[in-house]
Amino acid sequence: MVPAWLWLLCLSVPQALPKAQAAELHVEVPENYGGNFPLYLTKLPLPREKAEGQVVLSGNSNTAVGDLFAVDPDSGFLLVTRALDREEQAEYQLQVTLEAEDGQVLWGPQPVRVHVRDENDQVPHFSQAVYRVQLSQGTRPGVPFLFLEASDGDEPGTANSDLRFRILNQAPAQPFPDMFQLEPRLGALALSPKGSTGLDQALEGPYQLLVQVKDMGDQASGHQATATVDVSIVESTWVPQDPVHLAENLKVPYPHHISQVHWSGGDVHYHLESQPPGPFDVDAEGKVYVTRELDREAQAEYLLQVRAQNARGEDYTEPLELQVVVMDENDNAPLCPPRGPPISMPELSPPGTKVTRLLAEDMDAPGSPNSHVVYRLLSPELEEGTEGRAFELDSTSGSVMLGALPLHAGQHILLQVLAVDLGGAEGGLSSTCEVTVTVTDVNDHAPEFTTSQIEPVSLPEDTEPGTLVATLTATDADLEPAFRLMDFAIEAGDTDGTFGLDWEPGSGHVQLQLLKNLSYEAAPSHELVVVVRSVAPLVGPGAGPGATATVTVLVERVLPLPKLDQESYEASVPVNSPAGSFLLTIQPSDPTSRPLRFSLVNDSEGWLCIREVSGEVLTARRLQGARPGDTYTVLVEAQDAGEPTLSTSVTLVIHFLKASSAPAPTLALVPTPHLCTPRNNHGVIVSGLGEDADLGDGHSPYSFALGPNPTMQRDWRIQALNGSHAYLTLALHWVEPSEYSVPVIVSRNTQMWQLLVRVIVCRCNKEGQCLLKVGRMKGMPTKLSAVGILVGTLLAIGIFLILIFTHLTLARKKDLDQPGDSVPLKAAV
Ligand SMILES: *[C@@H]1O[C@H](CO)[C@@H](O)[C@H](O)[C@H]1NC(C)=O
Ligand SMILES: *[C@@H]1O[C@H](CO)[C@@H](O)[C@H](O)[C@H]1NC(C)=O
Ligand SMILES: *[C@@H]1O[C@H](CO)[C@@H](O)[C@H](O)[C@H]1NC(C)=O
User: Fold this and answer.
1) Is 462 in the pocket of ligand 1 (CB under 6 A)?
2) pLDDT attached to residue 3
3) Which residue's CA is minimally distant from atom 5 of ligand 2?
4) Rounded-to-integer distance, Cα 525 and Cα 459, Å
5) How many Cα atoms within 13 Å fall on the side-chain side of residue 95?
6) Is the torsion defined by CA of 660, 665, 667, 670 positive or negative?
7) The domain 674-762 belongs to what CATH superfamily?
8) Domain limits of the chain?
9) Is any atom of ligand 2 closer than 6 Å to the C-beta of 635?
10) Extended beta strands in 2-129, E state
11) Which CATH number fits domain 448-556: 1.20.1250.20, 3.40.50.620, 2.60.40.60, 2.60.120.260?
12) Residues 231 and 199: beta-carbon distance below 8 Å
């Protein structure tokens, strides 16, 4: 439930608060109303049911409206009590409210605006009764030189205050009656075109003008007033001015007065324009000022235009021109050209070659000493003891040329040139201009070998192609890498392309290589001439002797090593083989190869010998100490007969076998004389001269020894007769008559061979002749002698047997003391 008191409050709110502002009522009252008063103006929209309240009227200003306006309580009309004057107050702002007795506002406030409608009851007034004005000659027609001022009290904007000016009279009316024109609405007085020409012809005046002002606009009726204008004509002082010369950087207080202009007419306003815009100003009196320092280099000249204007900003006449010239001061040093990249000059350039031109600019006035620049070369300085300088400078133009002193590739030279103004006079300003000159290389150096004569190089014939023979080094004194590139070639000595060159571009090292097989037979030596050239074309004198190098290559002969038909050799020999027993032949694998010489290297036992030429290996002596089953290894060396350093060695393995009973195979025999038994002092001559006699030198002696058979050594004795012969005799007193083959080892130098000497041992008569022929002796026996022989033989056999048995008995007795030696003897029998 809503409380009852809140409900009441809600209903009473609109009554308690004033109503929203009501629309303003607008009422117009004619000024100076001539009818009856009070004049009812308008009925106020008062609420009828609230009539018991009191109507309150109030103004918005201090104006007491109480007696001027009122509200008729009965009719609710607003009324005015007397005539209103618009010029006194043009508008009244009223407020009407209906209030209860306790002051509570019952209705309103209702704003009411009361406007007083104007009546033309005011007369226009000139601001002055007499105007005095000076008119300068040269004033353009139509440009007002005087503004007449008039006022009218009536309401502005209505015809009642709409004023019109006009000239009523001009005195004198010379030379024309209408010298002037007056702009009717504005009251602007100006010369008429005609009057302008008249004024220029001769100095006239003064003139007196009667002017009128009238309200109500262009209507014929209206209030009017008059005034007098006295126009005095003055000579024009608006004359051209001399140029003003102003020093730049002038140290004076600013603004600084530089000139004066004057417009002799009245009401002038000066206006200044600078072309180009500059720090200039003009004041109300026509004084021209510069407001700050000038800089000739920024702007050397200004053209000022000063205008004389009326209040409306219209020019009375043409603007006055004033030239301002800024005077130069030497406040700018010569300016060097911006430092560019280094200038490249090829070395060897002739003197006088233009290098560059250092043109220093001076911002000061052209053609004046302030901008007259001369040049001096500061660096490089003239060096002591040198003739001339590397650079020459033209002091007036700043051109730099090459001097007499030559330049060298790779030099970086800093050129410093002093540029001075005032023509180099004392007190001139200066700058140092710099430019770098880089001396570029020219390919004027030919490459050269560091050594032109190389030590001879020895190469074996079998050197493989691709082998490095020699490395040559060449240098080039030029700097530019492109000029240091070299080409190499074999100029002479290699017609068939056996050799070649290989090099890394830019390295300066060239490798001489073998490309083909060498041949000692074809060419035992090569003299190679290697030449080096610059890849880039050469400037100046050509290559010198250093451009060639000679390499001598000596070819070493290579002979094949001797080659034998077997890798190793083996032979077997019975341990009882006599000296001179043939074992085997060592021979070359290719019978047509170069002749060889054989020798034994380490035959420490001395058992063997080898024939130097044929390679036959024999036993040199009895193999004393060798045991069956053993082996004996020696090295055999085979040398090239013509080139002893070429040799090869091979092993020879001897296998020892059990002693063989078979005698050695037949060998060379000597003729057979006979020896007698029992022994007499005869012997047999053995000659050493044999099949090898022709190979020896014939002077070295032969030596003789009995073969290794022990029986033979017991039974026989051999002794040397002279260098080539020996004497073989019986060693025992008795030797069984028989035919014997006695082995004799003959040795001479390293050679050794065996002879089998055939000897017949027989019984002899007193004369030393054989009594009984044995074997297949030659000669046919007679029947008688045969019987004799048979009987003799039987007899002899009997005696022989007795002797043998006696001997055996004696031998058996001996065997008890000495066993051994007799066994082989018994076996032999
Ligand atoms: C060069 O010699 C090698 C070895 O002696 C041989 O194998 C090769 O065939 C030879 N080349 C020429 C082109 O004679
Ligand atoms: C000889 O030399 C060979 C190889 O060095 C060796 O095998 C052999 O035993 C040597 N012979 C002697 C008798 O020294
Ligand atoms: C050596 O002696 C033999 C036999 O007496 C003889 O024939 C030969 O001429 C002798 N030789 C020399 C060189 O004396």
Assistant:
1) yes
2) 45
3) 635
4) 9
5) 13
6) positive
7) Cadherins (2.60.40.60)
8) 4-117, 125-234, 244-327, 343-381+388-440, 448-556, 568-657, 674-762
9) yes
10) 25-30, 39-43, 54-59, 69-71, 77-80, 91-99, 105-117, 125-126
11) 2.60.40.60
12) no
| Ligand that lies nearest to the alpha carbon of residue 726, given by its number in the listed order | 3
b/e 587-615 (16+ beta carbons within 10 angstroms → b): bbeeeeeeebbbebeebeeebbbbbbeeb
Q: How far is CA 800 from CA 330, 546, 733, 737, 793, in A?
A: 168, 109, 16, 12, 10
- Residue 670: pLDDT over 70: no
Q: 244-327 belongs to which homologous superfamily?
A: Cadherins (2.60.40.60)
Closest CA to 86 of 162, 164, 165, 161: 161
Distance of CA 677 to the CA centre of its chain: 118
CA–CA dist 241, 222 (Å, integer): 52
Does ligand 3 lie within 6 Å of residue 758's CB atom? Answer: no
Q: What is the residue with the minimal CA distance to atom 10 of ligand 2?
A: 634
Q: Which residues pair with 227 in a beta bridge?
A: 211
Instruction: Please provide the distance, in angstroms rounded to a whole number, between the alpha carbons at the two ends of the chain.
Output: 186
Give yes or no for residue 633 CB within 6 A of ligand 2: yes
Peptide bond into 38 cis (omega under 30): yes
Cis, bond preceding 109 (omega within 30 deg of 0)? yes
Same fold: 244-327 with 343-381+388-440: yes
> Cα of 591 to ligand 2 centre, how many Å?
28
Candidate from 569, 605, 632, 635 with most ligand 2 atoms within 8 A of CB, to mutate: 635
- What is the Å distance from ligand 2's center to 652 Cα? 9
CATH superfamily of 4-117: Cadherins (2.60.40.60)
Residue 564 is given by DSSP the state B
Which one-letter DSSP state was computed for residue 215? S
Is residue 721 lining ligand 3, measured as CB closer than 6 Å? yes
**C-alpha dihedral over 788, 789, 795, 799, to 10 degrees?**
140
C-alpha–C-alpha distance, residues 437 and 345, integer Å: 7
What spacing in Å lies between the alpha carbon of 518 and ligand 1's midpoint? 9
Q: Which ligand is nearest to the CA of 698?
A: 3
User: Coil, helix or strand for 330?
Assistant: coil
Fold observed for domain 343-381+388-440: Immunoglobulin-like (2.60.40)
* φ, ψ dihedrals at 679, nearest 5°: -70, 135
Cα of 641 to ligand 1 centre, how many Å? 27
Tell me what pLDDT residue 828 has: 32
417 within 8 A of 394, measured Cβ to Cβ: no
Strands (E), 198-300: 207-214, 224-234, 244-247, 256-260, 269-275, 280-282, 287-290
In degrees, rounded to 5, the angle at the alpha carbon of residue 345 between the alpha carbons of residues 339 and 350 is 135
Q: Which amino acid is at 94?
A: L
pLDDT, tens digit (0-9, with 9 covering 90-100), for 671-701: 456 788 877 767 888 887 754 444 444 456 7
pLDDT of residue 542: 73
Q: How far is CA 665 from CA 739, 741, 743, 756, in A?
A: 17, 12, 11, 10
Atom of ligand 1 at shortest range from CA of 462 = 5
Q: How far is CA 758 from the centre of its chain?
A: 106
* CB of 636 closer than 6 angstroms to any ligand 2 atom: no
What is the token pair recorded at 610?
Answer: 């080898």
How do residues 310-335 score in pLDDT, each as one tens digit? 998 999 999 999 999 999 999 899 99
- Using the predicted structure, report yes or no on whether residue 204 has a pLDDT greater than 80: no
List the helix and strand counts (H, then E) for the chain: 5, 53
pLDDT by residue (tens digit) across 351-360? 999 999 888 9
Q: Which two tokens stand for residue 242?
A: 């001399």
Q: Is the dihedral of CA 573, 574, 579, 580 positive or negative?
A: negative
What CATH number should be reported for the domain whose range is 125-234? Answer: 2.60.40.60
517 CB under 6 A from ligand 1?
A: yes
